[in-house]
Design goal:
Ubiquitin 3 binding protein But2 C-terminal domain-containing protein, 42% strand
């Protein structure tokens, strides 16, 4: 993360009606342990980083932007985030082409 910008939130923007397909789904957001990093070639449920902190919940509402609670994100660290559906029938499909500011992103805020 950037120097002096050590307060973070995770934000998720959903596009307006008709530009995506999803039902009302609840998604939990977790900050994972990141000191080891991730070896994607061997990543599975048994080797994934452990959950450190629940950051909040997103509910899929079209044409909305939601954000988690703030958390400390020290300079020079990697942030590993897990999204976890609460229900088996969770389905969110958001195409990225042709839309402004949709998707999942980290917001950083000044600390100094």
């Amino acid at each position: 993360m950037d120097y002096g910008m050590e307060n973070c939130t995770i934000a998720l923007s959903f596009p307006p009606v008709g530009s995506t397909s999803f039902q009302n789904s609840t998604v939990d957001v977790w900050l994972l342990e990141s000191e080891r990093g991730i070896d994607f070639s061997h990543l599975n449920w048994n080797s994934k980083p452990i959950r450190q902190l629940s950051l909040g919940t997103f509910i899929s509402i079209q044409n909305s932007t939601q954000q988690t609670m703030g958390y400390s994100c020290k300079t020079g660290t990697t942030q590993i985030i897990e999204l976890s559906c609460r229900a088996v029938d969770c389905n969110i499909h958001v195409p990225a082409g042709g839309h402004d500011a949709i998707g999942l992103y980290v917001q950083q805020f000044q600390t100094i």
